Amino acid sequence: MKPQDIPFEALRGTGPEVQAIEFPYRRSADQDAATPARHPVVVVGAGPAGLSLAIDLAQRGQPVVVLDNDYRLSIGSRAICFSKRALEIWDRLGVAPRMVDKGVSWNVGKVFFHDQQVYQFNLLPEDGHLQPAFINLQQYYAEAYLVERALQLPLIDIRWHNKVTAVTPRAEGALVSIDTPEGAYQLDADWLVACDGSRSPVRAMLGLESKGRIFQDRFLIADVKMQADFPTERWFWFDPPFHPHQSVLLHRQPDNVWRIDFQLGWDADPEEEKKPENILPRVRALLGHDAQFELEWASVYTFACLRMDRFVHGRVIFAGDSAHGVSPFGARGANSGVQDTENLAWKLDWLLKGRASEALLATYGPEREYAADENILNSTRATDFITPKSEISRLFRDATLDLAREHEFARRLVNSGRLSVPATLHGSVLNTPDVDAFAAPRQVPGAVLLDAPVRRPEGQDSWLLRELGPDFTLLCFGPVPAWAAGLPHVKAIGIGHDLLDPQGLVAQRLDAQPGTAYLIRPDQHVSARWRAPTEAAVRAALATATATVTAATATAA
Amino acid sequence: MLNTQANLSACDDFYDALIQSHQGLSTEQSHAMNARLVLLLANHIGDPDTLRHALQLARGSAPAQAPVAPERAAITPVAPVHAEA
Lengths: 557, 85
Prior knowledge:
The complex is a heterodimer. By secondary structure, chain A is of the alpha+beta class. Chain A has 18 helices and 25 strands. Among the domains of chain A are: about 5-100 and about 140-210 and about 310-375, FAD/NAD(P)-binding domain, CATH 3.50.50.60; about 440-555, Glutaredoxin. In chain A, the strands form five sheets. In chain A, strands 1, 2, 8, 9, 10, 11, 17 and 18 form an eight-stranded mixed β-sheet that branches. Chain A has an eight-stranded mixed β-sheet with strand order 6-5-13-14-15-12-16-19, with helices on both faces. The mean pLDDT of chain A is about 95. Classes of the chains: A alpha+beta, B mainly alpha. Strand 12 (about 210-225) of chain A pairs antiparallel with strand 1 of chain B.
């Protein structure tokens, strides 16, 4: 598709304008090729994960073909909570400012039991971060801004109306059969990445499964448009008078749209519950009988926590909902999908550039399977609290809520969803374990580097994450050692020299002293840290972080 | 390790107080009170190993239920069914 085919104005338009966009079908030269055209990376699915992956790869210089069986953006608001980490990734991809401008930023959540508030939490209780804890933004806006960015990158070729019908794995790639309005054709992908959603057709074509638990409960999403003076906070009710024995979640979205989630119980009939005449009384019970509102979108869903046993299957890789699924109420779905792609993009790029072997790419699986397990665990526990499975489980749930009114300890136990934070990749083979003592437990190897305000020497304010290199970064507290200039694909930054730390927050968050150094991966995770690094130690950590077996590490092993 | 040696300085007084504190409550209210009591005492103890030990001892000779990972059976993923409002 060529950029001129899409009215850019529409991608920046109102909700109805964005949702009305129909991306045109364009014939590709590949459809006329005598033998299937070969492409290094083919991504299936132009949702938040597929688009983020394509943009990341293109920014790294890799051409990407994106196949999408549809020709529209997300129908309905769907994923609405985008996390600080997703925004940090999207900032690197050039789309976060637009998302944050349009989105509703929030940090505070309140929990009610019956008609009383029992607990309030702030997800970002400290200053000095560029991104808020969360923004709420309808998925179609997020996708529109990602598509707009993708269209600015000539290396990305999005093919709408291109439906994958068969995948034949091969030793060196996968043969992809595609249906279009003008007939079928085939592509030869060196790497095929399936970002094709929870019902992943690619997964089914390979005979693979995503396995786990389905929770016996149903929830109704109602998006209503209204003028309301609720604050921009996440409000969660257990057993409120207006919806007895069930839970309700209220969330603000842009355009005066409010997301309301009503727990319905397992016996609810999804088809009946979706009817406006059944939705409106539920909303009125919450808002009052005189409330003026319009119903924008509704959906009934069931909670499920699922994942594939492995995310990497030869040359076919799964990312996002195709690989794993969690119940909502933790904002761990789309956000974890974007984090999958962040983990994958640089590894694929390094492999394709010949800087690393398939051993590096193989670590995508265990690292993101670990993160998926963490998301599933958190999500499962929240679901068990929200929808107790037994009488005794409900008894303890209600006891916790009772105590939470008065006692601080019980508020910690209240679980209305543990909201998405990036996984710390403890135990990853890419980490170099600490040899020195640090009093910064949030920044152990495997953790995402915390952001902090910085200033360039010429006086311009910036943010630490924005100043990192596209590949590795060596953050040195004090002058950069002379040997660091020779490190391949490493941007060395001397804090206090190349970049100032005016509030001292970088040093504080990293427990840095003069001489301390942190090695940061291309996906902004800490890979190693030292009090007094040597060139040999940093080179060894780089080899470890890229799954490169050097003569030294081979001997040591 | 949970201390299972005698540790209550006035054991009869405590037992009496425990029973008294439930007086006038329905069985349902008593169960709720016991649940709150468990949570309050658990927080006071704090140490996870001690609490695990207490859970084991309290469960006693009832058939031990090994902590099983949720069954990861093959099922069809359920995606939201979206309906136009």
